Amino acid sequence: MNITALTCVKNEGPFLLEWIAFNRVIGVTDFMIYHNDCTDGTDRLLEKFQEHGIVETMVNPAKGRNYQMEALKKSRRRASIKKADWVWVADVDEFLNIHVGDHTIPALIEACGNPQCISVTFQFFANCGVETYEDKPVIEQFLYSHNPDIWTHETAIEVKSLVRSDFPMTYYGAHRPFHEGANLPRRKQPSWTDGSGQPAMIQFIKRVNKRRIRKFPSKGVRNFATLNHYALRSLDSYLVKNDRGDVNREFRDFDDTYWRERNDAAYFDDSILRYAEPLAAEMARLKALPGIAELHEESVALHRAKLKELMAQDTYKEMRKQLQTCSPYAPNEAALRELIGMPA
Fold it and tell me: What is the pLDDT of residue 223?
């Protein structure tokens, strides 16, 4: 089974080794990775991985600022995508945590009944008070999240999708594939499940509600798999992330709303540590390839240098202090607590 991970990156150098190794552990055989405007060695590390036959990589072909969507729409021309039986579209801060069988993607596909698409729901993992960036696996550092059934005030949470080659697709989206015939009756729609192997809601498949085209109710949909999303990581790395913008739109700032919404540490979940030992072995194997360890260390050093540069600026000193002292509650939850007379 050829399974290709498809992603777009900008300045993710320190985190690439873990993400590529983790995906290889869960059954990914190929990678198509676009990059743009990198200043931390991400591009050089990817090119070295490509020399070793681990990934296919190229400069993002986007002409505008919507780098991710433009690249995903064009990705079907690439060799890694053409030969794939399945394509897994995810970001470098997202890890597919599979709860069934041998905890690999083929086991998830089998548990779900081999549909044409599987959409797995996010679980946002909090910063957990980790301030200093350390060069060690992200999945081992952050073990608390929101209640899986509700995020901030939302009971519908976003998904990412694993797509079979015969899906009647017009293009890959960042969260779901898009297809013609969305208005056709259910019997003519592609077979599509959630992360519990249940048929995806027809309203989601047919894109009935434009505000829910990439999410659906989260209760009971993660029995077979969860998508662990480490959007914050350490405070150090978050500040560097804020400086770079994001892969999808240049110059988008992250204020404390983004941080507070994803920093809910109410729920302990260490189930992903089942992968810790095989992940360490695969990371070591990849680092033993000529040039990989050196380029990884270069990215780590540049990540730390960027933080030092930022912390010489008053605006980033103030941002760090703001994030250290801001309310631990998402803005809507803080407003509700204030309304009923509780500390916000």
Answer: 98
> Rounded CA gap, 231 and 247, in Å?
13
Res 65: pLDDT = 73
Contacting residues for 277 by C-beta, under 8 A, at least 6 apart: none
The DSSP letter of residue 306 is H
Are 88 and 96 spatial neighbours (Cβ–Cβ below 8 Å)? Answer: yes
Strand 144-145, strand 86-89: pairing:
unpaired
Q: Which two tokens stand for residue 57?
A: 């990589």
| pTM of the entire predicted model | 0.95
Q: How far apart are CA 233 and CA 129, in angstroms?
A: 10
- Cα of first residue to Cα of last residue in the chain, in angstroms, is 50
Tokens 């290889």 — which residue?
24
Tokens of 308: 């030092």
- Strands 117-124 and 156-164, by their bridges, are antiparallel
**Using CB atoms within 10 A of its CB, is residue 77 exposed (0-12), middle (13-18) or buried (19+)?**
exposed
- Sign of torsion over alpha carbons 139, 287, 12, 25: negative
Run of H or E including 225: strand 225-229
Instruction: Please state, in angstroms and rounded to a whole number, the distance separating the CA atoms of residues 51 and 102.
Output: 30
Q: What CA–CA distance (Å, rounded) separates 88 from 75?
A: 12
Which two three-digit tokens encode residue 115?
A: 């549909």
User: Which among 200, 198, 272 is positioned nearest to 229, based on CA atoms?
Assistant: 272
Write the DSSP string, 134-147: -SS-HHHH--EES-
Of 17, 55, 65, give the one whose Cα is nearest residue 303. Answer: 17
For the chain, list residues with pLDDT below 70: 245-254
Share in percent of the chain as helix, strand, coil (round to 5): 40, 20, 40
* pLDDT score of 249: 41
Contact (CB, 8 A) for 5 and 23: yes
- Residue 126 in 3-state DSSP? coil
d(CA 145, CA 162): 23
| Per-residue tokens: 277 | 């030992």
